[in-house]
Amino acid sequence: MLKDMAWLIRKTLTNTFRNKRSWIVYFGLPICGIVLSMLLYGNASNGTLRIGIANHDGDQTLSQDAIRFVQSLNNVKVTMTDDEQALRSDIAAGKLDSGLVIGEGFSDALKNGNPDPEQLTLVSVKGAQVTAYVKALLQGYVGNVAAIGKQTHGDSAAFDAIYAAYAKKPFQFHTEAVKDTSNKKDMTYQSIGYLITFMLFSAANLTELILKEKENRTFLRLMSSPISARSYVLSNVAVNILILLMQIVVALFVMKTVLKVDSGIPFAQMLSLLLLFGLAAIGLSLLIVAFARSSSSASALQNLILTPTCLLSGCFFPANIMPESVNKIASFLPQHWLLDSLQKLQNGEGLGSLGLNVGILFAFAAAFSLIAIYRFARNNDTKSFV
Amino acid sequence: MNVLEIRNLTKKFDDFVAVDNMSLSVSEGEIFGFLGANGAGKSTTISMVASLLRTTKGEILLLGKNIASHGKFAKSNIGIVPQDIAIYENMTAYENVSFFAGLYGLRGALLKERTIEALEFVGLSDKGKAYPSTFSGGMKRRLNIACAIAHRPKLIIMDEPTVGIDPQSRNYILNSVRKLNEMGCTIIYTSHYMEEVEEICTRIAIVDHGKIIAEGTKEQLKAIITDAKDIWIGVKSERPSAIDNLKQIPGVISVRLEDNVVKIASKGEINNLNQIVQQLIKDQIEIRSVEEQAPNLETVFLTLTGRNLRD
């Protein structure tokens, strides 16, 4: 039986990889998915904010100190300009992430304890994502200086004395940059989301070969030879496992080594989980083939089942942005349990604590395969042979 | 010795009986013709002999062994030439033959030798590296045969091997069938072309509604029909409406038109030749020749089943 299977596997692999399209479908597309997720999430990983400052308040001490304060912030690169219009143009063109406009009279208002928000504005087209950090720290600085101004009630000498003491920074913060891993997690989540979508379609395409063999009658010739139907189906499953394994290894290799996307999950754990999901994908594709009467109806079923389930389970965009009801539906889909497992591993949980997820993925693989086998066994369709 | 023996074979699909208590035997060295109109039960019987379908009742013995319990043995000794061309378009002719021969356990030098031999047998030895997509219909049919014989089966089942090909390829295939038979293969041959069956088969069975209704040599089958005759009338021009008028004449069983010859099967005891000729003249069909012949296999088939083989 093993010799028969090896003979069939050799033929299927040769025929598959003789076709250049197969290389693109099985390996090219998953890599494209990873690159796409890099493009989607890659920009957010750039840690330096480019801020332009237009100062209309002259050489006033407070406005100069405010500028120095911004310049002293971590991960901020400041560009000075006198032309507010040019500043806005640079922001629109993407040359700057945001701009700080210091209005005339900013220092005086601050000294009096009445800072005017209109005299210190942050401009950006990217929204709070880039302004929040600077705004929060700047507000702290302005708030402190304004408090001094308020307490000194317009007494310039008292203000200068207290401010000088404040400027000496008797209370210093010790700041330490913590590595931001959320971006890395998002990128991995999305890359794997695309990968498992392609794995599902790859498995379905490979299993569909059974129907294509029936349609071009070579199945009849195969079944009239000493090869058993069981050997034939098992050889198809073996080819499926082999190609999915290669697909996973290539995708993970490109992700980690070529594109330098570190998932934060050990390679062996990631491979094991993806391979387990591969078994569920093969089971599902067998189920589709068992119920389809032709390769065209199998393709229609594929699109009808695979695309919406991938969408619901968060393969195309993060599941947490979807409504609770959709997440509940996703619990009935194997893709959800794989992505959930990966997220748990990224959050520091060990593989041992993923018993439920692994069990559910096994259950999906077993249930799909058993239903397919039952259906195959009861199929007495004369059109298959006569 | 019987190569194939079928005993009380029945196949039901729900309530439909496709093969009804059929029994027959095929001896070693025969070219056995299996005739029947579409839906008569030929292909279902062949599928059961090839172990592609389970039997509902009855047994099939190949070389004395029941195929139900000796499936692998039976499959190893049978070669199937299916009606539809069953080859891989993305594999060369050599790869196709080699792959199918490999399914029977052939490997290495023996596999190479048998593959080359099979390609030579069907006249495709110089096309081994070519892909079937570049082949004519006749060449594909020949490759279809090569894939079935490379493992040297004892019994070859050929299901309509000459459908839709040019006369030259048809002659090549018919000669190949004879040559295979001379080499010791027993052959079961089904065809819609009665003249082919008449030309090459040593014994013939006529199947209708899942039953064998007549069996024997072509002479034995023709002898069954004593009350029928064939009238062939050569005409200058054809007109389908004239054929309909001929069918109304008493005694006429069937009328068909082939290459400017009106072929009429008629009851032997009724003398209706004058009426037939008069009707053609009335329909302004110019007659060139009139021949009365002893019934051929086509007439036998028609008389026994009430329909043409191509129906």
Overview in brief:
Chain B: One of its GO terms (molecular function) is ATP binding. Chain B: Keywords: ATP-binding, Nucleotide-binding, Transport. The complex is a heterodimer of chains A (386) and B (311). Chain A is mostly helical and 386 residues long.
In words, what does this structure look like?
The complex is a heterodimer of chains A (386) and B (311). With 386 residues, chain A is mainly alpha-helical. Chain A has 2 domains: 2-42 and 181-384, no CATH class; 46-167, abc type-2 transporter like domain (abc type-2 transporter like fold, 3-Layer(aba) Sandwich). Chain A is 68% helix and 6% strand. The model of chain A is unreliable at 382-386 (pLDDT under 50). Chain B has a 6-stranded mixed sheet with strand order 6-7-8-3-9-10, with helices on both faces. Chain B has a 4-stranded antiparallel sheet with strand order 2-1-4-5. Chain B has helices spanning 42-49, 71-76, 93-102, 108-121, 137-149, 167-182, 194-200, 218-224, 240-246, 273-282, 297-305; strands at residues 2-13, 16-27, 31-35, 57-62, 65-66, 78-81, 155-159, 186-190, 203-208, 211-216, 228-235, 252-258, 261-267, 287-293. Chain B has 2 domains: 2-217, Rossmann fold (3-Layer(aba) Sandwich), CATH 3.40.50; 226-294, 2-Layer Sandwich (Alpha-Beta Plaits), CATH 3.30.70.
